[in-house]
Amino acid sequence: MTWDFRQRAKAFLRPGVRALYLGQGDPEWLLSSGHPFPLLCLALGPETLPTWQRALGSLGGQAAPWQEGALPFADGSFGLVLHRYGPCPYGEVRRVLRPGGFCLTEQLGARDSGAQSLPPHYNLENQAPLFQKAGFRIQYQNQHYQEKGYGFAHRFLLVGKAV
């Protein structure tokens, strides 16, 4: 791929920034980023939540239940939201971000071998306008297609600033 989500995300983890990670994938890399634990929050599904609540809670961070719908946080709670893989709830992400905060979302496109039940038009071209409509100014966007040994990879990345 032409980007590394983790490296891009780490560039936004500045001193004093409260960050939220939501979506699928392993958030362990975020916990090893060196960012202060009390400034980290994870929104996770029920299958991994108890493990992360114990691990992060004992370090001063927070892990909250979330699968879809409204995020369980107050408006303007975060300076950074990091999202991976499943469709991103742009409106909810914008709601919990403070003005001037950033969102990085890496999503599976419809042509990805691992994508399940995504509409055939789920790609950067169709999602970028929805991201903007939710209140983001796009800072960076990219899309990647690649044949892999296990199938076809289709990913896209959006980085936006909350306006």
Give a description of the structure.
The chain is of the alpha/beta class and 163 residues long. It has helices at residues 5-12, 28-31, 49-57, 90-96, 124-133, and strands at 19-23, 40-44, 62-65, 78-85, 97-108, 136-148, 151-162. Strands 3-2-1-4-5-7-6 form a 7-stranded mixed β-sheet, with helices on both faces. Strand 6 and strand 7 form a beta hairpin.
Give a brief description.
The protein is an alpha/beta fold.
**How many helices?**
5
Please indicate the percent range of residues in DSSP E strands (runs of 2 or more): 35-45%
Please compute the radius of gyration using only Cα atoms. 15 Å
Classify the secondary structure makeup into a structural class. Answer: alpha/beta
What are the main properties of this structure?
163 residues, alpha/beta, 7-stranded mixed sheet, 7 strands
Which helices and strands occur, and which strands form pairs?
Layout: H1 5-12, E1 19-23, H2 28-31, E2 40-44, H3 49-57, E3 62-65, E4 78-85, H4 90-96, E5 97-108, H5 124-133, E6 136-148, E7 151-162
Parallel strand pairs: 1-2, 1-4, 2-3, 4-5
Antiparallel strand pairs: 5-7, 6-7
